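User: Thanks for the earlier help. One more: Carboxymuconolactone decarboxylase family protein. Can you show the sequence and predicted structure together?

Assistant: Of course, both are below.
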Amino acid sequence: MEARLNPFASPVLSKVFKHFIAANKVVADSTLPAATQELVKLRASQINGCGFCADMHFKDAVHAGESAERLNMVAAWREATVFTEAERAALELAEEATRVADAAGGVTDEVWANAAKHYDEEQLAALVGVISVINAFNRGNVMLRMPAGDYQPGQFG
């Protein structure tokens, strides 16, 4: 499988992706735990069917020391006992925000309040940022049919 378009060879799309990457760097430098960021990225990528991003964030999480058991359970996090209450709240927020078209009104007040019990305002802002950025990446990569499986941790710097 080949991508429909190489985003890094396109003058326009490479600039767009560089902005996504810069936004992701802001979130990465926040106080939101890195493990939570990777769990959220993986879950949104699964929902959106983005194999490229699912591969990347699984491998980046393993490289950062995350267990395969926890990563394997991300798609079934509601039934899994391996996540903290804070991580569960972040995964729930990520799901509702990613599935915005499926839920009239978007993210419910209950889901937001649950996340706010576990994260301060800056961490909530980082959650909004990471969920927004991964959804943008997912949609771009799905449109381009970016092939999955060859990603190496740190490949993009």
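User: Great, one quick takeaway?

Assistant: The two ends are 24 Å apart (CA to CA).
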